[in-house]
Amino acid sequence: MSDVAYSVQGVSKQFVGTRALDDVSVEIRRHEVVGLIGENGAGKSTLLKILSGIYQPDSGTVTLHGQPVKFRNIAHAMKQGVAMVFQEQSLLPNISVAENIYLGNERDAVKQGVFRWPLLRKRAAEKLDAIGSQVSPRTRTEQLSFAKRQMVEIAKAMATGEGSHHDPVILLDEPTSVLEAAEIQRLYEVIHELKKRASVVFVSHRMEEVLEVCDRVYIMRDGKVVAERTKDEIDVPELFRLMVGRDLSDSYYAENEQEARRDDVRMRVSGLSGRGFTDVSFDLHAGEVLTLLGVQDSGREDLARALFGAAATTAGTVTLDGKAVRFRSPAHAVKAGIGYIPGERKTEGALLGMSVEENMTLAHTDQVMKGPVLVHSVERKTVDEWISKLRIKTPSGKTSMASLSGGNQQKVVLAKWLLDPNLRVLILDTPTRGLDIGAKADVYALVRQLARNGISVLLLADSLEEGIAMSHRVITMKDGRVSGEFDSAPGARPERTDVLERMV
Amino acid sequence: MSQHTVAPQSRSDGGSAAGRTETPTPDAGGLSVVRRALRVESVPLPALGALALVVVLFSIANSRFLTMANVRALADQSAIPVVLAVGMTFVILMGSIDLSVEGVVAATSMVTALLVANNRTHENFGLFAVVVSIAVGAALGSIAGFSVTRLRIPSFLATIGTWQIGLGVAQTLFAGRPPVVQDQDLRSWALKTWLGVPRLAFVALVVVLIGLWVQNMTRFGRYAYVIGGGEDIARLSGINVKRFRTLAFAAAGACAGLAGAMATARSGQGAVANGNGYLFLTIAGVVIGGTLLTGGRGGVVHSAIGVLIMVSITNGLILMGVSPYISQSVQGVIVVLAVTATLWRHRERLRVVK
């Protein structure tokens, strides 16, 4: 018997106008974690949809445990032990964890239409135990945090194909994209456990992650597999080159461009309390990138919102360039030179129904106005300037925001704040979440440039790596309080484990 | 990464996992059962609180409200809408609605009256007529179910259709002359009491208990929550959504069939008007009980309590001498307030309301 659990050979898939997959071959061996990495549009989600039975390939073959298979749909694939853990979770909030794990797959736990709850719960508990999850099978699913629900989702994947004598193949679609740094560590552990009982495909566009968890990596670009490497054969710069198709000009995080922070304190926060955070104090210097790290509910988002005037504070003071300030509303904060890019870009940061131009000038119409009148020629000129300066890929300023890629949308949102000549502090809530590697590198370079120009950046980083590599200083938060502070400079970065220890 | 660096994290975000014991044996002792029952949604605490409040307020306002005679009247008035609400609950849990109850009650009320001993036909099937009535109700419900699942007609339109079909059938059977029930067995269910309570109320209680069992223990009952919670996910999981949805309409129809027989027993004759007024009472009861019209939340007990609230308010206002027209408006206001209250928690997600 061969060592290959699941494979596709010479698979192609065509959509109207585009060739999404072109002669792709991938194999997944037993008890192996295989990484699938590529930028958005590289074809990795199409490949995943073929692997999970959602799409059928136009040509090529799919082989499961040595047998050629043709899955009719995702339920069919799951019956044979190929299970997908979706990025958008597929659990129902209003039923119990046990029901979710065995949904549509209850088998003899439902006899003549009647549930045998003890049996169902016992089996669910076994599945949860196997991945070290403490969740009770009785819990209503909506009561769990996102990270815990993901564990349930993985338990559900483990339950598919139960009863067949093969170990399942589990497909994880960007499982870390909405997890906090510490939760990601926990997921790594789980994947390590999973490996003993299953074959795992791990899709990601974060390079560090793939190198951390995968035994072997397939790198995709433009619908093709451009390389296959084992973990030991590859490092970040080469991965970047293979994925993006150009060399990493500087280091990924533009670390060479990091300058020392200036001595003058731009923003001094002392004893600040509010909903979700207590007694927070720190100084933010001019030209400094200060990273805030913490797990979900650590209070860092609440703090950021409060600093921007979007949430109330109950105690403590904030001074800006030596002057005490108290923002009653975001408009007030904007006037004082504070910019804020929220975490939910789609719902809070960008108006997708409006044009690039309108989005950019939204917060600072005064820059393109003469008296009470909006001057279109000035608006046009300003906008075009920023489009070229930030390398925003858009046909024109008139283009609808919705038609831009995530990375370009984010650059427009950044530009919105950069329009302000008085910008002093920029608060960035996970600005690179969901962006392509290339776009991320652009955002990193931009943040460096801002810092060099003396702007203070408060960064709520998306991952530990990003937070540490970008920073002059790292502040960790836990249960609403500052739990640690680390100085950080190129070549003298704090250890991941030390930072993590203060977060959990 | 060492194990212990990560381990505490699993406890640090949200306390909901605290309930897991080392040995997950499912059914422990008596006390924990009570505690668990209070924790899960199967006990509609807000609705119970509202019912208690209504009872207390009316007792204070009018000393006759809590007399045995009035409690008997409340039980008598609640029995039929409670039975209707149990069936309706499964339809609404799946995110559909059934507007046909008045039509189905009218038709099956006639069917029952004509099949027991009566002054118009020579049939006399005794209580077997009730079984036929339930079957006719289920058949009408199935027509609605098929229209929704196969013809893809929105349920409110499909059930307006079966409502009219039911009324038409009832008018045809009525033929201008009401059949008066002569079967004393059937009549006794409405006229005689057990423990001072009309027997029909016990019928309703049994229906609620059966409904509760179906809701918690059967595939049909659990999948009502699954389908209402996320139909796409249900379908992706290989669940035959159409079949279960059709079944829900059939179950609602069967309940309406039983309600029709009960209405005939109560009024002593078959009449098209036997179903009048039950649609509002049923839907208002279900909604006030805490079953969301969007599906996936609530349950049989919620709905039964919701009906009791509505009936108590109607009854209490009459006792206080409020004009029935004003009383009707008051009921309308209460429904609007109740829906607002149940959706209040979700108001942020409902920023766009059409």
From TrEMBL, chain A:
Pfam families: ABC_tran (PF00005). CDD domains: ABC_Carb_Monos_I, ABC_Carb_Monos_II. The keyword Cytoplasm does not apply. Residues 6-247, 260-504 form the ABC transporter domain. Gene3D superfamilies: P-loop containing nucleotide triphosphate hydrolases (3.40.50.300). It comes from the Bacteria. Keywords: ATP-binding, Cell membrane, Membrane, Nucleotide-binding, Repeat, Sugar transport, Translocase, Transport. The keyword Flavoprotein does not apply. PROSITE patterns: ABC_TRANSPORTER_1, ABC_TRANSPORTER_2. GO terms for molecular function: ATP binding. This is Sugar ABC transporter ATP-binding protein. It comes from Planosporangium thailandense.
Automatic annotation (TrEMBL), chain B:
It is found in: Cell membrane. Its main location: membrane. Keywords: Cell membrane, Membrane, Transmembrane, Transmembrane helix. It is a multi-pass membrane protein. It comes from Planosporangium thailandense. Residues 1-13 have a biased composition (Polar residues). Residues 1-28 are annotated as: Disordered. Signal peptide: none annotated. CDD domains: TM_PBP1_transp_AraH_like. It comes from the Bacteria. PANTHER family: ABC TRANSPORTER PERMEASE PROTEIN YPHD-RELATED-RELATED (PTHR32196), RIBOSE IMPORT PERMEASE PROTEIN RBSC (PTHR32196:SF72). This is ABC transporter permease. The lineage of its organism: Bacteria, Bacillati, Actinomycetota, Actinomycetes, Micromonosporales. The chain crosses the membrane at residues 43-61, 82-105, 125-148, 155-174, 194-214, 244-265, 277-293, 300-319, 325-344.
